Amino acid sequence: MAIAALITWLLTAAGGFVLLSTWISKGATRQPGTTQLPPPVVFGHFLLAVVGLIVWIIYLFTDQDALAWTAFILLIPVALLGLFMFARWLPVYRAQSAPGPQEAAEGHFPVAVVAGHGVFAVTTVVLVLLAALGVGGS
Q1: Tens of pLDDT, residues 27-71
Q2: Do 131 and 138 touch, CB atoms closer than 8 A?
Q3: Are 105 and 28 in contact (CB under 8 A)?
């Protein structure tokens, strides 16, 4: 379970890196008004996810239950921030089909990457919880 969680977490991170780099490259951090995603939310999501991943990797080496629970607790705000950003992204995505220019940086996100990131993220949260509970061994 713990190794499966690591794999899904790494896949989630890869998708998140694509989304973050797209968002930055389209000017979200340089030009005010080019994003519906608040930079502190985006970077908070990213930093908490990275810290959680590091804690999870340490857990894999040490097998200390407290680290598994710490990683899971870190995933809670990561997931909430992710849901918030998804809710802010949906109207931008829907507006792309309307006539007129699309200004928001997140309007350039590949839909498949957004979907994959979300699916792998939910899977990661479930696997981390199951591993923390001791289901399937560590």
Answers
A1: 888 877 778 899 999 999 999 999 999 999 999 999 999 999 999
A2: yes
A3: yes
Lookup result for tokens 């794999």: 7
Full domain range(s) for residue 7:
2-132
Residue carrying structure tokens 């220019």: 101
Question: What is the DSSP-derived secondary structure letter of residue 25?
Answer: H
Local structure of 108: helix, strand or coil: helix
Q: DSSP string spanning 31-89? A: STTS-SS-HHHHHHHHHHHHHHHHHHHHHHHH--HHHHHHHHHHHHHHHHHHHHHHHHH
Encoding tokens for residue 3? 């190794």
| Count of domains for the chain | 1
**What are the two backbone dihedrals, phi and then psi, of residue 42, each rounded to the nearest 5 degrees?**
-60, -50
Domain assignment present for 55: yes
